[in-house]
Write a structure and sequence with these properties.
Length: about 325
């Protein structure tokens, strides 16, 4: 038994020695030179040649050992053809330049200044009368003159006529007050109108003793630029009322001379002794006072007719009584 083991061991040693000598023979074989590879434009190196080592498998047997030797397989190198990439040529995009046409501005023609002849203001119609409120302060709190009225200046002559109406919106009231004297001046762009008040304690009356005006306005339609119209009327006794009373009149025309009139409409005015800055009891003008003369005349006429009818009736009855005789 021991001898068999020893023989098997020696057989293994012999097999290993033989395999080693075969490996040395294989390694000593001349190396195969691969053909030269053309240089490619992509400069890829050729793949290396791979050699496979022979593998030996030993199977221990009790008889004679068998060895299998594999010849090395030589792999032919694969030659890769160079891939030539065609360069992509990009066509340049030519942008057409945009030509902007220059805008030619036509020169603006200078307009000739239009010279318009100034047209004189036309006389205002008499239907536009407007009542204005005018006051004069004696101090910061007390009113000494107060007037509500609509005014117009009128020219009436056989050759010319015209009317100017005072507009309250463009009229400013100024004046002053003393113990027995006061004045009210109405100023407007075309001129002014002034009322002078007088207070008579003896007669217990307040009245206007002077009226004046100045007007720079073409009242005459035929004349483009008429002269300023002025008028002054003194020594008058107008708008009279008791002290503490107001004067009122619906319509009144003041003759100022030379065919000039000052028309005062819807008038109520008072100077001095205003109670709490309000008008006193109104004293109406003669035109606004009721006229009883017509009523009296009508009454008298009716009474006479009645008396005549009664007398005629009595006389007729008496004649009838005398015509009958007693039997």
């Amino acid at each position: 038994m021991k001898t068999v083991v020893v023989l098997a061991f020696l057989a293994c040693l012999a097999v290993s020695a033989l395999s080693l000598t075969e490996d040395e023979k294989i390694n000593r074989r001349p190396a195969t030179v691969s053909p030269a590879i053309e240089f490619s434009t992509n400069e890829h190196p050729p793949p290396p040649t791979t050699k496979s080592k022979t593998l030996t498998t030993t199977t221990p047997t009790t008889t004679t050992p068998t060895t299998t030797t594999h010849k090395p397989t030589t792999h032919k190198p694969t030659t890769h053809k160079p891939t030539t990439h065609k360069p992509t040529t990009h066509k340049p995009t030519t942008h057409k330049p945009t030509t902007h046409k220059p805008t030619t501005h036509k020169p603006t023609t200078t307009q000739k200044p239009t010279t318009t002849k100034p047209t004189p203001p036309q006389p205002t119609p008499p239907t536009n009368l407007t009542v204005g409120n005018y006051t004069v302060m004696a101090n910061k709190t007390a009113v000494c003159v107060m007037a509500h009225m609509a005014l117009q200046i009128r020219l009436a002559t056989p050759k010319s006529n015209g009317t100017f109406i005072v507009q309250p919106k463009s009229t400013h009231a100024v004046g002053s007050c003393e113990a027995t004297k006061a004045n009210l001046t109405l100023e407007f762009p075309q001129g002014f109108i002034t009322f002078m008040f007088n207070k008579s304690i003896e007669k217990n009356t307040v009245y206007v003793d002077a009226v004046s005006f100045s007007l720079n306005y073409p009242l005459d339609k035929k004349v483009a630029n008429g002269p300023p119209y002025t008028a002054n009327n003194k020594s008058m006794n107008l708008f009279a009322a008791k002290i503490g009373h107001s004067y009122s009149c619906k319509s009144e025309a003041l003759y100022m001379g030379d065919g000039m009139y000052l028309d005062v409409n819807q008038d109520q005015m008072q100077a001095f002794n205003l109670n709490k800055n309000e008008f006193g009891k109104p004293d109406s003008c003669a035109a606004d006072k009721p006229d009883y003369r017509v009523a009296i005349a009508v009454g008298v006429t009716l009474l006479v007719l009645i008396i005549i009818v009664v007398v005629v009736y009595l006389l007729g009855r008496r004649k009838r009584a005398n015509g009958y005789q007693s039997l």
